[in-house]
Amino acid sequence: MDLASKARFLAEMIVASSKAVALTGAGVSTESGIPDFRGPNGLWKRIDPRLATIQSFKLFPEVFWLFMLKSADLILKAKPNRAHYALAELERMGKLSSVITQNVDGLHFKAGSRNVVELHGNMREAVCLSCGYVIPLKEALKMAKRSYFSPLCKKCGGLIKPKVVLFDELLPCKALEKAIWESRTCDLMLVAGTSLQVYPAASLPEYAKLRGAKVAIINEEPTPFDENADVVIRAKVGEALPAIVDLVKEALRRA
Length: 255
Ligand code: OAD
Ligand code: ZN
What we know:
Layout: H1 3-16, E1 20-24, H2 54-59, H3 61-76, H4 82-92, E2 98-101, H5 107-111, E3 116-118, E4 121-128, E5 134-136, H6 137-146, E6 160-164, H7 173-185, E7 188-192, H8 204-210, E8 214-218, E9 231-233, H9 237-254
Parallel strand pairs: 1-2, 1-7, 2-3, 7-8, 8-9
Antiparallel strand pairs: 4-5, 4-6
Helix pairs in contact: 1-9, 4-9, 7-8
Bound molecules: 2'-O-acetyl adenosine-5-diphosphoribose (OAD) and zinc ion.
């Protein structure tokens, strides 16, 4: 099947679905200028991923905060791209139940998606690792800028960490539960811009498939789930998703 036929095929699947959910990763935000992790210009090609473990954060919080000070602006000022807007539009049309995202950039919300499950946390808040006290991330960034160490909790002196999930850390419980529920109750999962290398997010398409849902993948590079997917579209999400949403609109108008 060529790309255009695959896009039509997927649009038909969306029209026929009664509960479609999207699972997104860093690839949906590269067209907003935020690098992904494992793509050709991915972060893990420049930075050792071991620095993103919770153990490393506890040992060298200042290293992580230095990285945050350098990269926070890029993420906080980024604007949604056509892929985010296409998914938001699909939700407004009643053809997408939720977006489960591994991204912490908040761009799905900024694009207008309402039912967003943030599996790996967010860049809005920071949390004390000792007492759980939460402050806005911007406040923590100001504290980090002033000190050479790491922001410390006003309540207990504990280490403050951005509310993003690091390696070897548990995922936020409610978000994980919701993501699993959405995956087990959907009849179509639209996977976009993720390498599907990181668990438990990578197991969500398996949950969906086990319950009989169809799985579609839109990604520039191959993923381990490609052979089990019903359709694989190897394209830029910012091009493919708006084109597919246009086809869905057209089909709904005709119906
Ligand atoms: P990855 O960087 O692993 O995968 C992004 C995928 O998107 C790659 O396969 C790219 O080829 C593809 N891609 C990039 N730009 C694209 C575009 N414009 N159109 C289509 N495809 C594109 O990112 P994730 O799968 O999100 O976790 O990574 C999962 C987790 O690993 C992240 O949430 C992060 C990371 O370590 C934590 O930090 C806990
Ligand atoms: Zn505290």
